[in-house]
Records
---
Amino acid sequence: MARLFRDLKVNEQDGKVYLTLYNRDGSPALRDVSVGVSSEVTQPGDNWTAAAANLLLRLDEEDQPQLALTPQDIGAAAAENGMSLYVHQKSGTVHTLTGSGDNLRFVATADFAAGDTIQVNGQACTAATAAGDALWNGFFRSGAVVVCYRTGNRLTFNGGGLPAAEAAKLAPENLKTGVSITANGKTVTGSFTADGTVTAGQMLAGAVGYAKGEKVTGSIPSRGAAAYRPGTADQTIAAGQYLSGAQTIQGDANLRADNIRQGVSIFGVAGNLVPRIPVAYAACSRVLGLLPGSTGDYRRPTRASGYADPAYGSLSGLGYFQDNQSGTRQVVWQCARTGRYLVELFGDGEISARGEMQISVGQTITLTIPDAGDIYWRDMKCGGMVILYLP
């Protein structure tokens, strides 16, 4: 098992070198471990951190630390691959790399933080990944082996994250809510439903959607096709429904002005029908007949019947009678309420006035029953009149 430690401090005492190893979280792992010193380890001291930070240590089977590579060993291995070993230090926000060659390899002694700068042998350099992105916070950590190459005053680092164009797409509104992705040193948490405004009352019942990271189930009821026949009471289609079928308000061809009483409006149609109130009628007939067994004894029976609303007038001359003489019989209506009336004749006979007219209290209308003297044997004549009040 190999372990790369965060820090290593070396002290020399009694001709021996003692190492104190620290874990990545800064806690001591092993204290005052004595190791043999080879000729390559030449910088003993209380705080031998520059060179010590480049030491890779391996624990043996007994969990004892053994030096696996010295700084010169690392340099030799790097040289074999065309790499130049550099020493890394950090002061404030400035990372200093010291060495020679354009293909750099170093073991980081400190973390890279956002806003940090890098100098190579005292010359300020810009730093970017092979994809062209600037180094981000945490691009490398203390103890990491870092590789880059130098072109003039520009350092290009191996590894990296997304190209700039792709990294720009890594935005909360492009990721599903609750999902986090870390790239280019930045963690983005999705919120693509953050701009949703839909509520249950704006979706059909049973429909499912998402808004602001929450699941929304619709509650709008659906109403199928229906027909409505107008009546005397209002009929209401309740609000908050989805009309999935046609809603039909039935019409009627009889909804015409001449079918509606004057002064009355129905569904916006103003009537022009003048109401006519029947107030009196009279019907009559006369018959010429030969008495049975007789050769010349004729009778002229007459029948007059009718009705009058006493609020508007009265009838006289009604009843049944007979005589043996020719002549006329009359039925008379006398007005009891001044107003406008319509008088009409039907059948045989005559009336003293006909049509629409103004009649005052006391005025009369006379129906004359026709004479039966000019009719044939066993024949009759019938007629009558009707009187209507026009309000």
Note: Residues 71-80 form the longest helix (10 residues).
---
Amino acid sequence: MFAPKLAPGDEIRIISPSTSMIILKEAQIDLAVERLTNLGFKVTFGKNADAHDEFFSSSISERIEDLHEAFADPNVKGILTAIGGYNSNQLLKYMDYRLISANPKVFCGFSDITALQLAIYQKTGLVTYSGPHLSSFGVKHGFDYTLESFLDAVTNDAPYEINPSASWSDDAWYLDQENRVFHDQSGYTILQEGEAEGKIIGGNLCTINLLQGTEFMPSLKDSILFIEDDEESHSRSFDRDLQSLLHLPDAGSIKALLIGRFQNNSNITEEALRKIITSKEELKGIPVIANVNIGHVHPFATVPIGAVASLKAFDGETEIFIEQKE
């Protein structure tokens, strides 16, 4: 089930179901709101978006209140999360999935928000969007690719491609917007060749694994799995987290694997990644593409969880198409 696409004049509600918006710099919020407003959207905020406690988050009841109000409000057409964090999975058993199913809306964010997105998809069938937070719209330079992909995903029904960006950056943009380093990118890295079509499922790897064994975990049957992780991951943690996911009963039918570019602090080399992938019998014979524009390294694509995707990876060339159909 796809929510109605966004159009100029639509209201986008900002909520903080993980870390509070209070940690964002005012200048970043101002730029983000300006960008969204210039696109024709009306930006509003959940009343608890700035609420915070000693964990830089807010109570479950405050976060649930904002989430439910955003879905229930008929004027709200899209919902953006302020930022990621660590604790959005606290909300899963308190969410009113009937309310969400009856009021389908564009719901976008990434990282820790993966827990909410996969749970919503599993419980309601609503396609959710792994893509920018509000904070992402506060990136001053190098944002064009992220914005274009977001608009491709949430404002029209046409198929679109997740092409490699011309460059990428992993510096702390939120500390110094003017001191950025961008690296050239000529393409993605093919670890295993092939072609596939399937339902695209995934998000932040360590967050996905929080859902294993729960009622909130979607099936990986016949999926194109996409995964990414942040700078807290390293080769050994990535290896075991991926292996844990591949132990799921329906993982044997995964059609392809997309891996987002790792942050520099992960220190995961291409050699190490190739060894990890070739060690997985469960991945034999399917295409595997790494360094994809997904996740914590800028810029990044917006990926609709639950949509059909197709891909090809041969002779150093890749194609990744989002079909925008269920």
Note: The first strand starts at residue 11 and ends at 15.
---
Amino acid sequence: LPPEKAIYILPQADLERPSYFKEVKASLREHLLRNRRMSILRNPALGLYSRVGEPQPDFERRCAAASEDKADREMAKLKDKYAASFNRMKSQLSNADRRVRELDADARQRQQEEIFGGAGDLLSGLLGGRRRSINLGRAASRRSMTVRTQERLRSAEEKKKEKEIELEELENRLAEEISSISDRWKGMAGQIEEIKVPLEKTDIDVEEVGVLWIPVG
């Protein structure tokens, strides 16, 4: 029931005109279209936008997942870039290691043969004059072969070390590229900003317009 002694004033609106309420609906839609803005989140680096009503933590997780996917795809390209060099260096290192082991075994065997054959016989035989030249020649030949084998072993060890350094440098370059890709995409995931977007006509729906009588006294 209206308050006692309430006074009502007739509105200025032409309520008797049938098209009045249609015009009010259209006017309200235009007003909202011009003046209302909707706040959403955007990640320009990833080209992502938040959904209507999506909480910021959820949008941040979507950005993190998207950036990780892009980083994975970029890192996958490194396989083609490094695979051939890596396989070649591994093969070269394996061959160098096998050569070192072969020469090491050969050097050990020759050293043992010299020991069993009489270490120091070459020098003592020559200085003492007790050995004939043919025997001294054989001892000298054995000694020379041992020295050459040891030199080849040192050369093979140096070559193996060079291959180990090359492989390590390759892995260091790969690690740097992986870190660069990971850091870059992580940074992009955090480039989130809030923007205001205007409404579109399809976003606005005025279901009903009514008249409310308010007592003024």
Note: Residues 88 and 167 are 10 Å apart (CA to CA).
---
Amino acid sequence: MSLPSLKIGDLTARVPIMQGGMAVRISMAKLAAAVANEGGIGLIAASGIKPPELIENIREARSLTDGIIGINVMVAVKEFANLVKAAIKERIDLIVAGAGFSRDAFKWCAEGKVPFVPIISSEKAAKLSERLGASAVVLEGKEAGGHLGTTHESTWEILPRIVKSVGIPIIAAGGILHGADIARALSMGASGVQMGSRFAVSEESNADIAWKQALINAKPEDVTLIESPVGMPARAVMTEFVKNLKAHGDNKPKIRCVSCLKDCKKNYCIIDALEKGRQGDLKNGLVFCGERIGEIKEILSVKEIIKNLVQEYEQAVSPVGIYG
């Protein structure tokens, strides 16, 4: 059995896989376009950059693919409104937003005729999103990387409740690494999946090789939760930066604060830490990852990743497979 397509509004992705939007500058034009070219939905990470850089990446991605390209942006960043409006003006295919909830974004996207897809972790948020006009929701459980809406409920625990709560497409996220995970999510009523960690460690990912190698080498005990300056828990690799953060409670930035977040605890500069991590500075950098990152052992191209996922899915749903 082949993978079904994923419909969000008037958009149809040939494979029901959305690539997670990973900031800062991990998932940019090259990665998003590569996923779109394989029939999935590619997302450009807008958090931590300015509108001109986002516009440049949207246009670059458009030059590389005629597939579906969206953006992922944190509601918590001060540039949120400007980034969303810039993407709408560029006729982006869809907008995904997390790390907060914005009622305004529903209005902006409705006026611009762009599907809006909030990231949620509860039935209440899913119902509110549908009522406000969301085209779909990304359901993120505790297994996800980066900022987390929940640290105690698994994607698999929440998913059945969300399926019963709303009628819009549900995209399962958090702990989705293999084709069997996709089969499981779809069998439980999800319309598609979002995958971050698997694409973070791809050839097209915009991260330094040291960043990717840190993820590949990570053991379960190397993955930990930290408190983000945005006021949410987040999952990351235990770099020296994170060790210092846990030991001392802060990592005060030695750079001039540019007030990039709407509300910031200022215990450290997350944008600076994420950017240093991306550049391979693991001593001073932050490396977000999913709970199951230790299962990824090699850097592959997006084409190889999706080919493997399709094969694994077909095996899982075959008569002799675990979901057959």
Note: The first strand starts at residue 6 and ends at 8.
